[in-house]
Amino acid sequence: PPPTPVGPVPNARQIEWYHREMIAFFHFGMNTFAEVNEGDGTASPHLFNPTALNCNQWTSVLKSAGISTAIFVAKHADGFCNWPTAHTNYSVKNSPWKDGKGDVVREFANACQDSGIKAGIYLGPHDRHDSRYGTPDYSTYYASQLSELLRNYGPVWEIWWDGAGADQITSSFYDRWADTVRTLQPNCVVFGTKNSYRYADCRWMGNESGLSGDPCWSTINPVSIREEESHIAQLNHGEVNGTAYVPAEVDVSIRPSWFYHKEEDTQVKSVADLWNLYFNSVGHNSVLLLNFPPDKRGLISAIDSARAAGLQQLIKATFKTNLATGAVVKSLHPRGGDYKPTNMIDDNERTYYATNDKAVTDTITFNLGQKKTFDVLMLQEVIELGHRTTGWSVDYSSDGKKWVAIPEATNKQSIGYKWLVKFKPVTASSVRLRVDSGKASLAIHTFGIYKQP
Ligand code: IPT
Asked: Could you tell me if 145 and 81 are in contact, meaning their C-beta atoms sit under 8 angstroms apart?
């Protein structure tokens, strides 16, 4: 029989969410035209006038970046609405763009649908324009907008509840809003913060620099994280014995700011920066939410799109070949049956290696049959069975007797959906994974070693 799950386990939304690995964020709106990041809500709708808005360009950028999911900012904290909502006049309908007949949310949703990209929506809980902010009337206003967006634009894959400035949004607001989300779009992932953690499928991870913790557990104690400042470490690392499964989503911009500013064209993250970011997010058991801010034309700059495509090329080239494929794999505590050690190198996440129920530790040796040079390693646990392994290291050998530690892969803790490590190239004919602590028997579906191009 298969191993029994241990601790909190992911729901179906979270399993699907992890498999997206990278999501694009699009911050666009009044702030783009007012040339600020946090507008105070007084900018005139007349300012909003993209000259060449084309959401198909956005999705084509994502295609070449290998990103299959996107979240669009429908309303940021300045309160300006990028769709012609029936519930306020502070929207595109009072702008000169398309004579007030435009709808950016519609164009975004359509472009996503046409290109097979999953569409999510950021609807800022904080609102500096609406005078009802923080009152029960605001809760109604927000709920009406949520319904409008969740009813009229097709499937909404994720809803993003930014905690920035949202301290007045108490649990009772979220009780109502979560009910709206669950009723209208049962499969919608909820990004939660502060007072919304009990509804959250994924969490903020404590910074906007793209650096998930090491370790990074998918579990937290959600009620205790209402006050963020004193819980940054728990958000960043998760909590190994957390009571709820709320994995980390890493929001970070490809530029210094969330919104587009021409003067930042020289500060777009390089491919090397993005590569590090990838290892610190996707490679730390998290999902990367990477922001591409469209400019005043309503287009993503060629610089940003080239960098994103560069990242994708690096990912593809590196992970093309698992150099452990074909290895002879031996372990100390195999479960037997279908749970063979070679399942870790068969490039199939449905098959996995497991130890017998009594063994929470193990040593698994991969005899490569010949010398191979590699500088990246990947581990993936069966997330449906909960976080199991809590301590592991990887060593290599050129004779199968004398083992050398890879410092970057020594005394690691969490695995989860995916854990990546990169290091100076090593040449070896054998590699071994030593698991020295765990909550339950091992359940690992992938062990990979790779060479960066
Ligand atoms: C920060 C919020 O406090 C947090 O809840 C989350 O929404 C996060 O933003 C998203 O990046 S505020 C930010 C200025 C650190």
From this structure: yes
